[in-house]
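Much of our argument rests on the idea that a fold can be written as discrete symbols. The amino acid sequence and the backbone structure tokens for this protein are reproduced below:

___
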Amino acid sequence: MGEVVMTPRRKSLWRVFYTAPRAEKKSASRLEEQGIEVFLPTRVAIRQWKDRKKKVVVPLFPNYLFAHVDERERLQVLRTSGIVRCVSFGGALAEVSPEEIENLRITQNDPGRLEPLTFPMPKEGARVVIEEGPLRGLKGEVVSHRGQTHLVLTVPSIRQAVRINVPAAWTKPVPEEPRTTV
């Protein structure tokens, strides 16, 4: 009688891959064609052209996609056109939990509500300047945020202040001005 040889089952994990610029969708398609489970979360963005505005579907995290792979498939992904590298932190390959993937999948039920936040978020008390939108150039102090940056514009001469809500991504820290000694 022949002996039954059991091959060990390979462990698949959700890995993060960095793509070439604007290659996320093509790379995801190529991986799916190879039978690899891929997840590319998207969002709806409004793009401005000279003559019109248009809603377009763009990756939620530019240059990133997720693939559920074992080690052999991970190496196969790295040989795929458009894939630059597997993301790692501190020398260890980044692994995304199934719960995180499920949470991201749920966001895809309403991608029009998504807006990525930039990190690091401005800290409370930080001086920032608005770089986008109709309030471009306005400087203020961050008082709080929960996805939005609340700036306080003060007018000391009349002891008044105004709170302004803007997307955190529209702001950048104001460089500290060198202090002069007299």
The longest strand covers residues 148-155. DSSP finds three helices and 14 strands in the chain. Residues 13-113 form a domain with the Alpha-Beta Plaits fold (CATH 3.30.70.940). Helices lie at 24-33, 71-78, 98-107.
